[in-house]
Amino acid sequence: MKSDKSASFYEKARKSGALAIAVAPMIDWTDRHCRYFHRQISRQALLYTEMVVADAIIHGPRERLLGHDAAEHPLALQLGGSDPAKLAEAVKLAEPYGYDEINLNVGCPSDRVQSGTFGACLMLTPETVAECVAAMKAVATVPVTVKCRIGVDQQEPEEALPALIGRVLDAGADAIWIHARKAWLKGLSPKENREIPPLDYEIVYRMKQRWPDVFIGINGGVRTLDEAETHLAHVDGVMLGRAAYQNAAILSDVDRRFFGAPVAEPDWQTLCDRMMAYAERHIAAGGRLQHVARHMVGLFTGLPGARRYRQILSTDAAKSGAGPEVLAAAFAAVDFSGMEPHAVSA
């Protein structure tokens, strides 16, 4: 039986026309500090953790890996692994942390992921992915979803992608997110795999046509909200990756444009105040300002004063003993007068 959260998110989103905009899981980027920051800009976008390996949850520092601020919701946990029993155990251990979704990584092409026999290389063994999904669904109280590529190496996407989708849906997957590129496990670095393989959005559209009653979202190379809106004419959701991280201001119009929030003047001072308070709590708990500030560097790309803003966050925030006042100094360097009004959460 699907959980209430499953019905309230994916099924409701698809049936009611509510549109899903998500920020992609990105290793070394979408940590808890990044997600808190993004949540202050968009109340509605679905946020994802970095990929967390099932073995690490079972044997490692669970609170550090799974802990998060309540403000981050709606929030999905992305798991990495290929052992159904370990993934099921990780799902059970994660349940007390209250995630809104559990996502299985079938798309990451990095060497360290391949060495663990999970990530994109699982595209080669869809039966294993299905077994993992079935095991996770058996213990999960929230939606279980899959994020994949359109294929790997010499696979023919028109065969490999529907074969994978069919199996994981039979296993009970609640939604499919598809990065519209192949992953080349041999010959390309992870960075090159995000840029060199050509994008094929049309194949993702065809998967939605083939499974019209299934939530299918698209990822890969989406740079603007205009592009996101174009995709949403064909699929149910759009996942923003580097565009959201490198210029987080793109999220400031998500709630108005896709979720019906009222237009509002950006309240950048409130955002600054919230991030200062958050940074103060983090520092008091033994952290450093740089852990928070590093995710904020690209916020005001293109505005007058943005260069000085970046300098302050990149240099002063990294100094020993740096405090929240550094964020105030950085915001004070920016001229907001030319920025168009967006719906920024207040």
List keywords for this structure.
single chain, 346 residues, alpha/beta, eight-stranded parallel β-barrel, 17 helices, 8 strands, 43% helix, globular
Structure, explained:
By secondary structure, this protein is α/β, with parallel strands linked by helices. It has 17 helices and eight strands. Helix 16 packs antiparallel against helix 17 (325-332). The chain is globular and about 55 Å long. The model is unreliable at 1-7 and 341-346 (pLDDT under 50).
Secondary structure blueprint with pairings:
Layout: H1 4-16, E1 20-23, H2 32-41, E2 46-53, H3 54-59, H4 62-66, E3 75-80, H5 84-94, E4 101-106, H6 111-115, H7 126-139, E5 144-152, H8 157-170, E6 175-183, H9 190-193, H10 201-210, E7 215-219, H11 225-231, E8 237-240, H12 242-246, H13 254-259, H14 268-284, H15 289-293, H16 306-315, H17 325-332
Helix pairs in contact: 5-7, 7-8, 14-17, 16-17
Biggest sheet details: 8 strands, parallel, barrel
Mean pLDDT equals 91
Point out poorly predicted stretches: 1-7, 341-346
What is the strand tally? 8
Shape: globular
Structural class computed from helices and strand pairing? alpha/beta
Level of helix content?
40-55%
**Rg over CA atoms:** 20 Å
Strand content: 5-15%
The CA-CA distance between the termini, in Å, is: 37 Å
Helix and strand string, N-terminal first?
Answer: HEHEHHEHEHHEHEHHEHEHHHHHH
Count of DSSP H/I helices: 17
| Spatial order of strands in the largest sheet | 1-2-3-4-5-6-7-8
